[in-house]
Every structure is written in structure tokens, then in C-alpha cells.
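Listing 4. Sequential folding, example run.
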Amino acid sequence: MNENKRHQCSTTDGNKMKKFRCTSYEKHSVTHFEDLANELILEVFDNLDTYQIYQSFFHLNIRFQNLCTHANLSIQVGISSVSKTTFQRYYNDFIAPNKHRIQTLHLSNPFIIDFFVSLSEDITRCSQLQTLTLCNIEYGCRETVLAAAAYLPNLSSLSICVSSQSDKITIYKLIFQLPILKYCKMTFQDQGRDSLKLLPIPINSSSIIERLVISDNYDFCDIDTILSYVPRIRYLSVRSQNLLVMRDILGCLVIFNDLTHMSIITNCLSPISTEEFVKKHSHRINVLHVSSGWNSTCTQTWENSILSYIPYLDASELNHSASLFYNRMMEIHESTYNYPISRVLSAYQRFFTHEPMSKEYLHEIFCSIQPHRDKVFKFVPDFNMTTCQCRKEPDCNSIKHIIINSTAALPNCSKYFPKITELTLHDKAIIQRKPYLMDDLRRILPLVQLTKLTMNNIFYELDIFINILQLTPNLHTVTWISIKNTPKDLLSLQESKAYQLVSKQNQLCPRVQYISLGPSDRSLDATVHYLLSKINDATLHLFLLRIRGASPHWIKCWKDKIESHEVLYDYSTKVIGSSFYLWWGD
């Protein structure tokens, strides 16, 4: 199989090299990019983002302007980090004349949506649109987009983030009415607030959705309602993001006879509702895995009842407090369901192995040893890389993102991950290994390559952040979640050698374009004033600011300040939920 793949790749590469040599020898030696033939330049463009093409080539000359708008070039609009002035120019020169050719549209900037959906703009002009992503969209506008999307004849993939103000029932109705949608991913911010009891059971559903990924907290009654709307479903994933207490969680993996897969991770399920669901679908269930934190002494009768409905089950597993199986299913959930429709439609060579578990967990894990999308590696408590066959020889060259849930597991790692570009630290006990953390990180990954850093639940260890920043000159995105306290020794930290060095060589802040801040009782006003200061050289490229959890009074005061003091000239403001957005020009 590998030989065939290599032969196909070498043949393709050989044809491209012949084409390039033919062009070179027939005309002249190519020493400049502009000397390449148009067809070769278009091949290069196919591997670039549309905004990169516009920014780099559109204004060179007439020839490159024509190539940038060539009919064979697919247009994918996914820009979010750009100033108001720059985007307005990009929109007028490139997007507006070519809306009918846009195939992919990613809208995460709350202001850019107005260029596609407003009183003067209609998203149905994007008649070739195939993939649409909606995030940070204000209440009402999201429903308008979904209603108009029913008239997009090629829309097959949709990803949407739904705010707490939206009506879930309306959102579901609009999505299930999209005529050719095959892949849909929905993320609800306010999870578990509303059930789907008010969503009527359809008589005849015409939805052709095959893959449905939902981030919310539902019970089996809601799952049944969803299934009634998607008769062609092949993969359904329902997972709540706000699950904290293990004993309340139930994980359920179901495979029907027609190979339809369902993965459900929630705390809304009960033994009664689970039994009712299994009873209703007993004639369809082929494989059933259930893992929960329920008291096993109280559920033996329930287990026997469940199995009595499906006597011809090919594989089953009902276990309790099985955290290992739960973690495995989470990994299966991530690798199986969270990838875009474009990959679903492609064929991949896959190689599999199986992992026998201990007697405590009477089942086996069947997993890919070369997963096509497994680019994340996690360090968890009590994890030993040598005890798991599926992880015994990880493909270190394919891993791009390391998540450290337990810094105590780092000394046990004997591997080096040379291609890492993203690091997530998620360990409240990180302070216990602070003296060794930098040595541990240097031993397993190249810090100089990092471009993204996330610190989650690292409450006030600012010196750890400074030490990491000192060795990561290429960082362009930093996310720090749950900063609860300001370090008491902040003054001494500022006087330290590490801080002074970072202050001189840091390239992150002078290039920062977008900042999102949570509420602060002490420093919010001073921080915003600093960021918007005209004489602030550290934020010359900043053009988008978000304040989360802002009060109406605070928003009004700052709107008045910006307008009366002429802090900014070409700017726009929006309020979405409790978030205040400010976008301005160069």
C-alpha cells in the first residue's frame, strides 16, 4: 500500500517537474517568480489564502490582477485579523466584484458580517458558496443568515457558534431546512439551558445531513428528536463542554446495524432514559459502549435489563467509574467526529491496531496507529507512554500541538516532538514543578518554533509566562484563561533579568492585532486607556478590541469617551450579548 502511494506521489511530482523543465528550456531560464507561466502561478495560488494572494500580488501589475481573479481560482474568505481600513480596501478591490465565486466563507469578526448580510448586502450573492462558518455574530443576524442560506444552491458544510440569546428551536428548524447540507457543527454557549421538547417531530424530513456535531448537553429524548430530522445521518456526536464532576457523566458510544455512529457525552442521562432509548432502538443497535460514574451496586439490574433488549449484540460494554475508558472514548470522539466535510469526502490509507485492556475493563480498543488528523498529544495524570500499544510509538513528526494536563507526567516522557507549534498548559499544580518546567519543556519540544500558547487555570504564575516568552520569539497568539490574582511580587518580577530581557526582545506586543479582555474591577479602565493611547508604540498594529462581561454603564461611558475625545477616527462599535467590540482603521 505504501509502495503504491509512493509511486503515485512520485509520478505526480515527476509530471510537475517535466512541466516546469519544459517551460524553462523552451523559453529561458526562470530566475524570477513573474517569469513563470500563468498555469504554474495559478498552482502556487491554489496553496495560498485568498487574502495572501491579494496582499502580495494584486497591486503588482495588470497581469497579476487578472491572475488573482482568474476563473479557475477558488476564492476562500477567512480573514479576521485585519484593520477596518485594510479590509475595506480588500473588499472593494477583490471581494465585492467576485462574491459570486466565493466557495468558503469564515466569518468570525463581528463587523465583517455586515459586508455580507445587511440592508444593502445579501449573502445569496455568494451563489457558489460551499462552506460557511459563523462565529461572534450578533443576535438576529445569525437567524437572517440561516434563513438566506436556504437559497444557496451549493452550501454543503456549516459550522456555527450560537450565543445564549438565540432561540435554539429556531436555529434547529432553519438548519434542518437547508436543502443540500451534509455536514453541520453547532456549538451552543449556554449549554443545557433548554431542551428540544418544543421542536416538533417532523412527518417527513428532507434533510440530507450525514454528519452532525453538537456541543450541548442533551438527554436521550432530545437525541431522538434530532434523529427524527436527519434520516440520512451517518455520524452524530453530542458532547457537553461544561462537564466537571466525573460521577455525573455518562459516555455512550452506539453503532447501529447500518453503521451509523453515535457518540454522546453528557450529564443529562439517567438509567431510565438510557434504558428507554436502548429499548426503542434495540432492533438497530449493533455495538454499545456505556461508561458512567453511577454507583455500580445500584445498576446491576439496570444492566441486565439493557442487555435483555439486545440479545444479539455484537459487542457491548457497561462499566462504571471507568475513567480510563471514558478518556479513551473522548479521544475517539475527537479523532472521529471533529473534522470538516472536505476530509470526509476523501479517501485515506489507514492502518489499525487493537489494544487489550486489563481485566477491570472487559473490552478492547480498536484504533488507528496512523490517524489522519491526530496532531495533538496530551500529558495526563499517571500517563505512561510505554503501557499503551496505541501510543507506544507515537508519530512524533506529525504532532503539532501538545496539551499538558499534568506537568508531573513530563519526566516520564522519553520522546521529542520536533514539529510542535502550539502549547497548552492546563495544570493548577504547575507551581509544584516550576523549578523544572523549562528544562522539561526544552527536552521534549523546540520552544523557538511555538506560535501559539494557551495558559488555562494558571491563576497567577506570571513568572512562568515570562520564562516561556523569553524562549519563544515566534509567538503570535497568546491565550490566558482564569487570571484570578495579580502577583504580589510584581515589582520584583519587573526588575528581574528575565523580564528585562523579554521587554527588549519581545516581538509579540508590537505585532498584536486583537486583544480580548475579561472584566476587572481594578484595572480595566486603565488598560483600555493604555491600549487606545495614540503615543503607545507597543500597540501600533492593534485594531480590534473585545471587552467581555462589560456592563451597559461601562459601555456607554467608553462610547462617549471615544466619540468626544476623538481617540479614534475611523472606527465601529458593536455590543453582542455582554461583549463590547471596537474595530478601527490603520
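-- end of first protein; second protein begins --
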Amino acid sequence: MRIDILERLARQLRETIVGVSEDLELTADEAGVLELVDLVSGSSGLVFEQTLPASTNLAPLEVVFDGMIARSSGRHPPRILTEHGLRHIDDLLETCQDIGRHGTPVRIQMASGEYPPFYSWPSEVWTDGRPAPLYALPTLPLVLDSVTLRGAFPPELPPITDTEAGKWVIRFTGHVERLDNRKSEMRIRRDNKLKELNLSEEQFATVDGEDARWKRVLVTALSATPNWDGVVEVLRVVPATEDVEVEATPTNEAAQQIQPLLKRIADFADLPARWDSYSAEPIKIGAINAAKAFLVLAASELRARNMVMTLPFAAPVSRGSVQLEWENGDKYLEIELFGERWLDYMRSVDNDAAEGETNRDKALDLVVWFHQRGER
């Protein structure tokens, strides 16, 4: 990316922060200092950090990006901003769009983690061509990175393209509110075109509490069209979420394969108390949903590695959980799901065994381990 473009963006950002700081009635000392602290990929990006005194409760850079996201998505901007501050934000948006019109598309987003962040919630500042992300991290660096969207995916989770219509698993992050199943509408922007997906009621798996902000959230959607031949860029679930970056992985064959097993697990909800004629608890809905989501994810993960999942044996457990068991010769894997974040495992090869608590990502690794030939 050309240095003059980076300098123009940096200059406009500084001017915008000054204008918004005036709206926040912050003195120059209270507004902190925006400094260049790093380069990204040679000269393809600049990283700025805004250092704030402890007495400053509201970061101007965060307000700037909140305002940009609101302006670009048609929502009301933060009430704390006056017309003075909004003019500065509009100037920064116009700068980004003008740079895009001249061949260097820019996308604005907030993110967490190390830069360049892989999981984030972007606004819709889109122009023709492929976007170059502009990032702001929680510690308030600003990053401009000229990588394409395909390059922004984590190396261990590459995007997969497929023209086959059917079931998809879409992984995304961002601040996710409870989704409204009564109006389950999804719009996909790809190559400046909107595509629509219709969602069924049980196709959302969200996480509660503070983890919801940056945790990956799973959505299984039924595609209305077969025309998925490129990397998906922006996902909007209306009405309750921000736009978020997505990775879409088709799971058509895998989903069809595991449908009978998913139905068997769903039927565990009908088991009454003491279903084992002793003291068994009813199977918790959270455990059932977690097991179903885990199986869809596992099938998708294995398909991405050109493997087909061996269907496990699924069984209810007297303490209200769901147990999945895989066995092949002397190789054995058992995963017990109590909910979205609570899993136990036991794996063994011959007389060598290990067990304990785990999380979903590590449990997925165990399923991959079981299906790999020669791995012990």
C-alpha cells in the first residue's frame, strides 16, 4: 500500500479524534496521545496507539469508530456526539470511500486480539474491489493492513468455497445479542451483491455473558441459492446484531449424514425423570443443543480435512448430560457434553488412557485425532 495513502488516513484520523475529543469536552491532556508504534507487513500498514490517562473514562478513538459504524449502517450515532463531531466522522468516512474509488478499498472495523485480528465486527464502508481492513483494537491501536479478506482468515481455518446448495456452518464473532427467531433474516454481501438466507428457529447457538462479545458464534443456515463461488465478506443478521466478518463452510453431505443422529439426540428431551428406573435426571436442553452443535461442527471440521466422520454412539447420561462415543479397534474416544462450555473427555489407545475436562475447540481436535490414520 502506498505510503501517501497511509499518511492521508492517519492525518484524517488524528483530525477526527481531535474533533470528537472536543465533543467529549476533553482537554488535550485528557484526550491522550495518538502515536505510531509499529509497522504491519513491511509498509502495508501502520499501527497507532492512543495512550489515555487513568482519569479518562471514554476513549475518543472508540467513540469515533462507534460513530463510523452507526453512520455507515444507517443507525443513530452515539448521542454524546454533536454535529461538530459528526462532521469530522463523516470526513473520515468520505476519505476512506474516496481512497476506495481510486483503487484501494478500505473497510472499517473494531476487533479484539493481536493484529491483524481474525474475528471482529466491521461496518459497511465498502467500495468497488477487494477491501483493505482498517482495524482498531481494544488497547486502541489503529491498524491499516492491505491483506485481502481471504488472507484475513486464520491459517488453521481456511475458507472453503462450494457451489452446492444446502446446509452451511457460518462462524463469526462480534458483540452478539439474542437473535430474534421470528424474523430470522440474513443478508450476505459478496462482490457488491446481496444474497439472502432463510434460517430455521433452532439454527442459532449463542454464548451468554461477557464471553459473547468475542466468542465465535455458530449459525447453521439453509441456503436459498447454489451460487456460492467466492469468499463471503459480510454477514448481517437482522434485527439484533452488528455486521460481522464470516467464514462459511458448506456441510451438505456431512449434515445429511448426521441428521438421524441429531434427531436421536433431540429425542433425549422426551426422557422423564428417573428414566433409568433409578435416580436419573431429565436430559438438559443445553446439553442436547451443545451435542447437536458439536456434531455439526465436527462433521464440518472433518470435511474441511477431506475426512468423513464415523458416526458416534450417542447416549443419555443419568446426570442430565449427553455422551458421544467413538470406537475403532483399540482406539476409543468418549466426549460428555453438559452444555456449551462444559465438556469431559476420555480417550484411550490400548492400555494408554487420558481423561479430564476440556473445551469445545480441544474436543474437536480429539475428534480429528480419532479419525486420523496412524495417530495414537
